[in-house]
Design a protein that fits this description.
By secondary structure, the protein is of the alpha/beta class. It is about 40% helix and about 15% strand. It has 12 helices and 11 strands. A 5-stranded parallel sheet has the order 2-1-3-4-5, sandwiched between helices. The protein has a 4-stranded parallel sheet with strand order 7-6-8-9, with helices on both faces. Helix 1 (about 15-20) packs across helix 3, helix 5 crosses helix 12 and helix 10 crosses helix 11 (about 260-275). The longest helix has 16 residues, at about 85-100.
Length: about 350
């Protein structure tokens, strides 16, 4: 049966249509759908019945624009292939929806046109922008500051002191210290660290905390490996190259990887060598796969729900709790930090 293209398209019901059917004014219809507005119970009942009959839904976006508040938050994110990015996005959108806000996803993966993406957020009059774990390059920072008085908060990454931006991040320095203490307690003598991008470590502070804690215990960071990107394959290749070019007796005994993706790649490389030598591996982020029976990756959870609550308190309500529990992550002790000969 073919569809008759000449048939008139059904038009959406308007507030005027509802008012006419209910026998009330258009303003009464508006008040009936506005929480806390003054409207009699009888009138509201008539409006809701008419709306249901006509299939009417109020245009919340249009109403928000008239109040200079759209209840839309731009969520800027990159590294979408990284499972931790998905965890951040999940935590952010759940918290936004619980507050009655919608998320506008802004993919600002490296190489994309930042200007166009951020301009779209500006044109849609978002109430704020949440940067999730992004490295704010000079270009991206300049674009963000060119917007028309849109507040923004950065989560899960630090920034240089020269930049005026609200940052919500766990105490990465303390996290690095905690991981060093865990590995030192196992009696290891030689220690390594695997970075992703070779950016300023101060953006995360994990390396500083780790290295300083080793130094205070009379040890040192013996090897720094740089994968170049947060990519599982690169983590595998970096670890594989290290194993192939370093004699077993000269290798580190414990390796702290900057995130779980790199750690899983390193563990895969260790398994592929089958030479009877194993390193202790610790990751960071506590992605879902870390807890699998196959990997049992010891890692560090950033407790994203607490971070997002604090970030949105600042972005939406202009409230902050500088000493809150959101600054404390949680060490997830499993089995990958135990060296097996």
């Amino acid at each position: 049966m073919t569809k008759d293209s000449s048939a008139p398209k059904q038009q959406k019901a308007t507030a005027s249509d509802v008012a006419k059917l209910a026998g009330v004014s258009k303003w009464t219809v508006s008040r009936a759908f506005t929480p806390g507005a003054s409207v009699s119970g009888k009138a509201q009942k008539k409006v809701l019945a008419a709306a249901a009959e006509l299939g009417y839904r109020p245009n919340l976006l249009a109403r928000s624009l008239t109040k200079k508040n759209t209840h839309i938050i731009g969520v800027a994110i990159d590294e979408l292939k990284n499972p931790h990015s998905m965890k951040m996005l999940d935590a952010a959108t759940k918290e936004l929806q619980a507050r009655g806000y919608m998320a506008l996803l802004l993919n600002i993966t490296e190489g994309e046109n930042y200007q166009a993406v951020m301009a779209m957020a500006d044109q849609l009059q978002v109430d704020g922008i949440l940067f999730l774990g992004n490295i704010l390059t000079d270009e991206l920072f300049a674009v963000a500051h060119s917007l028309h008085h849109i507040p923004f908060v950065q989560v899960c990454r630090n920034n240089s002191d020269q930049r005026e931006i609200d940052v919500v991040n766990i105490d990465g320095y303390r996290a690095g210290q905690d991981i060093a203490a865990l590995l030192l307690a196992e009696g290891y003598q030689r220690f390594g660290y695997m970075k992703g991008p070779d950016t300023e470590s101060a953006q995360l502070m994990r390396l500083e905390g780790y290295s300083d804690a080793l130094g205070k215990a009379g040890r040192q960071l013996d090897t720094l490996l740089i994968a170049g990107h947060y990519d599982r394959k690169l983590g595998f290749e970096t670890m594989q190259h290290y194993l192939q070019t370093t004699a077993p007796q000269n290798r580190v005994e414990a390796l702290f990887c900057e995130n779980d993706i790199l750690a899983l790649g390193a563990l895969e490389a260790l398994r592929s060598q089958d030479n009877g030598h194993s390193l202790a591996i610790v990751g960071f982020d506590d992605i879902d796969e870390a807890d699998s029976a196959s990997w049992q990756l010891t890692t560090y959870s950033q407790q994203l729900d607490k971070l997002m609550t604090e970030a949105l308190n600042r972005l939406i309500d202009s409230e902050s709790d500088e000493l809150g529990d959101w600054r404390k992550g949680e060490l997830k002790v499993r089995r990958s930090h135990l060296k097996r000969s």
